[in-house]
Amino acid sequence: RAKREAPRQEGETHKPGSPILKRSPDITKAPLTKSEQLLRIDDHDFTMRPGFGGEALIQISCLEPVSSINKDFTMTLYLRHYWKDERLAFPSTNNQSMTFDGRLVKKIWVPDMFFVHSKRSFIHDTTTDNVMLRVYPDGKVLYSLRVTVTAMCNMDLSRFPLDTQTCSLEIESYAYTDDDLMLYWKKGNDSLKTDDRISLSQFLIQKFHTTTKLAFYSSTGWYNRLYINFTLRRHIFFFLLQTYFPATLMVMLSWVSFWIDRRAVPARVPLGITTVLTMSTIITGVNASMPRVSYIKAVDIYLWVSFVFVFLSVLEYAAVNYLTTVQERKERKIRDRLPCTCGLAHPRQLIMGTSYSDVDVNTTGTYGVPENGEKQERILVHLALGDDRTTSRRKNSRSYVSMWIDTHAIDKYSRIIFPGAYILFNIIYWSIYS
């Protein structure tokens, strides 16, 4: 029996009504859904663009901190495209649209938009791809997706941190020129919506606005480009606390040395060195958090001028110390020429009969010997040189050498000049950059 049925299995002819001639379905091809059948997905070639141009509308939901170091910004937005594709028109009695997820997007034509000058970008996919497609009976299409993009921002940091920056997010078609695809904002500036809760730690968002321009590529032609422009003003309070206020304190601290006695070398020298090193640390810390630009920033001007003031206060004490040493040498030579002073207990006895000048006790000379709690700081010494044998001859032949011992005049003037110059610098600086 098996032998009799074998020829039937190997035979090539069968009865026309035999069920073995029915073709089995192609399991490699997924069946069309009802919505795809309604939209006639298989009836059209969606690799070709539709006849209409595109419109765009964007809602910005999040603007993350703008980086001055990398000169970029990160933005999360809902990018919505509007266009009309008559191939997707379908009959409808109630004129209601149909909404689809990202699976249908892969089967129809969508604009090939990309972000110009972007460093990183991605479409959110939690829990599924954040993509929405809405089709209207007349063929109008709404295509929305949630995107996070990190793009470059050409910042001018010459006024940092008192600067205002304008950044742009640029959107453009990659393949279609302006002859094939026309991009424009659907409602002008009203096409851009922002979340009221958007805030930045370092910047104040002043305004958003949109523009449309043409971009030219020498090898491919002209393309429509959409711009999202936003203006940011940097918050200054953080830098006042972290940079300007400490620098000002260091400059004021360096002025304390003007009120310290010149002989207190262990007090004045470490004070000057400490303020210089602290200013160097502040400058290094600010530059470490900034991009290495080839131009001078506003904060650099303030810090380096403050550094110069601190450094000059150190040089001021060096000048005071040097001039005091020179003065003491001259004084020692004068004493050596007066042998009568060797038996005097104090130099004041030398000038009891000469002219004497009392000076303000706030000056810092210390040549005079303290008497009754007062420091005599300036002494006019008249030295008589000549023959003392007769009084009349002494009056005629005596020549007077007058010398003002005022080694701390530099300190006295520095107490006024340094603060006055620094205040003037601050007035000019803040009037220019604020």
Automatic annotation (TrEMBL):
Name the UniProt key words of this record, in alphabetical order.
Cell membrane, Chloride, Chloride channel, Disulfide bond, Glycoprotein, Ion channel, Ion transport, Membrane, Postsynaptic cell membrane, Signal, Synapse, Transmembrane, Transmembrane helix, Transport
Among NCBIfam families, the record links this protein to:
LIC
Organism of origin: Lepisosteus oculatus (Spotted gar)
Give the matching Pfam families: Neur_chan_LBD (PF02931), Neur_chan_memb (PF02932)
GO MF terms listed in the record are: chloride channel activity; extracellular ligand-gated monoatomic ion channel activity; transmembrane signaling receptor activity
GO cellular component, as recorded: chloride channel complex; postsynaptic membrane
Positions of the Neurotransmitter-gated ion-channel transmembrane domain: 243-348
Stored Gene3D superfamilies: Neurotransmitter-gated ion-channel ligand-binding domain, Neurotransmitter-gated ion-channel transmembrane domain
Where this protein primarily resides, as one coarse class? membrane
Cite the source lineage.
Answer: Eukaryota, Metazoa, Chordata, Craniata, Vertebrata
Q: Where's the Neurotransmitter-gated ion-channel ligand-binding domain?
A: 57-235
Which residues lie within the region annotated Disordered?
Answer: 1-25
Compositional bias (Basic and acidic residues): 1-15
Reaction equations catalysed: chloride(in) = chloride(out)
Transmembrane residue ranges: 236-259, 271-289, 301-323, 413-432
Q: What is this protein called?
A: Gamma-aminobutyric acid receptor subunit rho-1
